[in-house]
Specification:
The protein is mainly β. Helix content is 0%, strand content 54%. Strands 1, 2, 31, 32, 33 and 34 form a 6-stranded antiparallel β-sheet that branches. Strands 3, 4, 5, 6, 7 and 40 form a 6-stranded antiparallel β-sheet that branches. It is globular, with a radius of gyration of 20 Å. It starts with 5 loop residues before the first strand and ends in a 7-residue tail after the last strand.
């Protein structure tokens, strides 16, 4: 097995985890590596990196559950190309990858979706370009209960943009965007029952809400895409960014991100919003860090990945809470023996399938400017990691238990939002021409 570190779970279930460093060099400015975990089919990792001196390419790798490499696919342009998110087809037969590049027909940054065969990584289809004349940026990808593909990002004037594409053909169904003055679409998901939930950050004043950067929650009908509810949540502590979102089986919505704590510094913010759009929980982590991402398992437990834990720029943290954010346990993961930092302002990528948690992030040595894409797979039950020092492809990662997470309450005021949807101001005309190289499984976990 090409596994460099085995982390035996202390849960008594005999679950085995692995910790891996990708063999290629990642990008030191990478914002959010993406991953997807499937308990049966394996685990996916994607980032943009250098392999054998090539220009930065989107590199997608699939692992078996024991850590062996099944296949690797590089999706490259004449310019750098960056994978931003991935999602599996409902039957697990396909993998959809959201890719950003500056080859859009407008001459500006655009993005498209590539559909890969989950069995061997070959290219099955690609969507038209999704772009505008300026300010196009993708952030997340989701598949709804009908199998339609929903990317989420921003478009003209940094307006949240969340089109719908056919999962079968990648043809465009609609080009919905949120008609606000300025904002970023960060997360998209589906409630039980099929309604779509869009989480974004907007900068505007409406319905008495003060200006500044604030979280916006937009709920759309799963059948007609009409607006069901639309609210902004204003913090009494200043600006904040809901980078990450998750929805549990009871339609509670969880946000993770970062907030300005009033000193020019940022801290991870965690929020829970009930199905009636009431804020149930809103706190930030006291003592540092920068941002975090969230994911929810089938039992309603919340997993949080936070970067730069408690001000230690060479570390990150993986935390577990119950559905009301009562702390259950967690671990700090630190890169040792070098001056380094974690460069994921989104906190890292998390995904849960069944009882398996998959996390990806990037350590960067600030002296050599070498980037280390890291992937961790562990069980969600019990004490899900084993403390210790692990040699990982020439670097050393120290895992230590976290006994508590200090938090400070952050009051939120809800305001009704009035801006609606629009399908104007976006283009999707040209099919992207990309060079595909499906490699033998030569990406080694060193």
């Amino acid at each position: 097995m090409s596994i460099i570190a085995m982390l035996m779970s202390a849960a008594g279930s005999g679950a085995v985890s692995f910790l891996a460093k990708m063999a290629h060099q990642g990008n030191q400015y990478q914002t959010s590596p993406v991953c997807l975990a499937s308990a049966v089919l394996g685990y996916y990792h994607a980032d943009f990196g250098v392999i054998a001196g090539e220009l930065f390419k989107a590199v997608v790798t699939k692992f078996t559950p024991d850590g062996s490499v099944l296949w690797q696919t590089k999706l490259g342009f004449s310019v750098a190309s960056y994978p931003r998110a991935m999602v599996e087809a409902l039957d697990g037969s396909k993998l959809y990858v959201l890719i950003e590049a500056s080859d859009a027909p407008s001459g500006n940054v655009g993005y498209f979706i590539a559909c890969l065969n989950a069995a061997d990584g070959t290219l099955l289809a690609k969507s038209p370009w999704l772009y505008s004349e300026s300010n196009t940026a993708p952030y997340s990808l989701y598949i709804d209960i009908d199998g339609n593909i929903r990317p989420c990002g921003s478009i003209i004037g940094y307006r949240p943009f969340f089109p719908k594409l056919s999962g079968a053909t990648l043809a465009i169904i609609n080009l919905d965007s949120y008609n606000v003055t300025s904002g970023y679409g960060y997360g998209i998901g589906t409630e039980t029952g099929g309604n779509t939930v869009v989480s974004s950050m907007t900068i505007w004043e409406s319905g008495g809400a003060p200006g500044g950067q604030k979280g916006n929650l937009l709920r759309l009908s799963g059948t007609t895409s009409s607006v069901l509810t639309n609210h902004v949540f204003v913090s009494d502590g200043g600006d904040y960014y809901p980078y990450s979102s998750a929805i549990d089986g009871a339609n509670n919505i969880f946000w993770g991100g970062r907030c300005n704590i009033g000193t020019g510094a940022y801290a991870p913010i965690l929020m829970k919003i009930d199905p009636e759009q009431n804020v149930v929980f809103s706190k930030y982590v006291t003592g540092g860090s920068s941002g975090c991402s969230v994911e929810v398992d089938g039992a309603g437990n919340i997993f949080v990945f936070a970067e730069k834990w408690m001000g230690d720029v060479s570390s990150c943290a993986l935390l577990k809470f119950d559905g009301n954010f009562n702390f259950i346990g967690g671990y700090k993961l630190a890169l040792t023996g070098a001056s380094a930092m974690v460069v994921n302002q989104f906190g890292g990528a998390l995904s849960i399938r069944g009882s398996n948690l998959c996390a990806c992030w990037t350590f960067v040595n600030s002296v050599s400017e070498t980037a280390y894409p890291i992937m961790l797979v562990c069980a969600t039950e019990g004490s899900f990691l084993k403390p210790g020092t692990y040699a990982v492809g020439g670097i050393s990662i120290l895992i230590s238990a976290i006994s508590s997470v200090p938090m400070t309450a952050l009051a939120m005021t809800r305001y009704a939002a009035t801006s609606g949807l629009t399908t104007s101001g976006s283009s999707a005309v040209a099919t992207p021409v990309i060079a595909i190289a499906v490699a033998a499984p030569n990406l080694k976990i060193m």
